[in-house]
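Annotators were shown the component list below and the corresponding predicted structure, then asked to write short factual statements about the assembly.
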Amino acid sequence: MNEKKQLLLNAALKLFVEKGFHGTSTSEIAKTAGVATGTLFHHFKTKQELINSLYLYTKEQLLTAITMDYQDSEQFKSNLKRLWLNFTHFGIENSDMFQFIIIFHSSPYITSLTKEQAETRFDDVLIFYRKGIENQEIKTVKDEMMVEFFLGTIFSTVNYFNKHPEQLNEKNMNLTFELFWDGISK
Amino acid sequence: MNEKKQLLLNAALKLFVEKGFHGTSTSEIAKTAGVATGTLFHHFKTKQELINSLYLYTKEQLLTAITMDYQDSEQFKSNLKRLWLNFTHFGIENSDMFQFIIIFHSSPYITSLTKEQAETRFDDVLIFYRKGIENQEIKTVKDEMMVEFFLGTIFSTVNYFNKHPEQLNEKNMNLTFELFWDGISK
DNA sequence: ATATATACTGACTAATCAGTCTATATTGTG
DNA sequence: CACAATATAGACTGATTAGTCAGTATATAT
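Structure shown to annotators:
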């Protein structure tokens, strides 16, 4: 990736989270990145294309962080916990990216084509857990409800530790996972 | 409340959720409400004041919907469930307002003063449950974490039923509450 | 009925926006 | 080195924006 292109993505990420899509001008993005506006439009044909690229980029970073490391030798709970912890830690350590994904996931600024691209890659991760979910100690709930609940608890956990960073330690992190786990287990 | 002022709030709510704060022009809000732009600026000094008013208005509507009807005669679980169900139903039936509150709660467009105003009124509701939480069958978790978890599960439940309205029935609603309840109970 | 305040209108303005264009610099290739 | 392709720059433009203003209509009070 070209250096200035990367600087532009970083600047756009920060500003979009802070002030929204329309609240951030292309000239401000260029200024923050330390480049000219012409350079921005050289790398991204339109502002629209910039935010689409940014969405794919952040989702890719998230996917890398939660890597598909399902271990058949381990218990289902351990596998699920590792996924949950990876996801949550990503959210805490990359709060701009996490916020961006949350905000712009259900936003009209990202074209549906881009969303589909990102979503498909995402489902690939969850498919590993689907066979783990069947015949396990988990409540019989629709897959989609389970995914929403999973994401909802991560969302609230990240929010909590962002607001109260002094509470961030292994004990409390385990406790919040137990809230999720006891909810879904039979 | 003045009729045209109400029309302006309704139009702004719809458009802000759809296209964001800066993505919606004041002329479009006025046009959607069927009034002149001058009328908008007569009722709200600035666009900023409009969104602040809207935030207080939607929070007020939410508060009314989840009314403080704690019944000491009933079990804690029943009281909590009623609050949870009122909240969730509000989110499903008033999806624009719910979305608006979620989006603009952690957004720089609402001044922190306005947020405080709304938050104070909100805490008044939760205080009724605090004494219920003590010495109950609930896990010992920080109050703030409990609130985040509470809101997180409502958020995911509303999201789920919005995406899959055909799944909306009493049985599934009870099931989703049990996910929350089993998580927090000892 | 008259006076005063409030509600409303839409044309207007200075500022700002996304995107263009022309020119210059840097890089890669043979 | 030569020369083409790519990267960078920033002044510029037509369109759009939040907010103003001068005047008109409607409601309220005495």
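Statements collected:
1. The mean pLDDT of chain A is 90.
2. Residues 47-184 of chain A form a domain with the Tetracycline Repressor; domain 2 fold (CATH 1.10.357.10).
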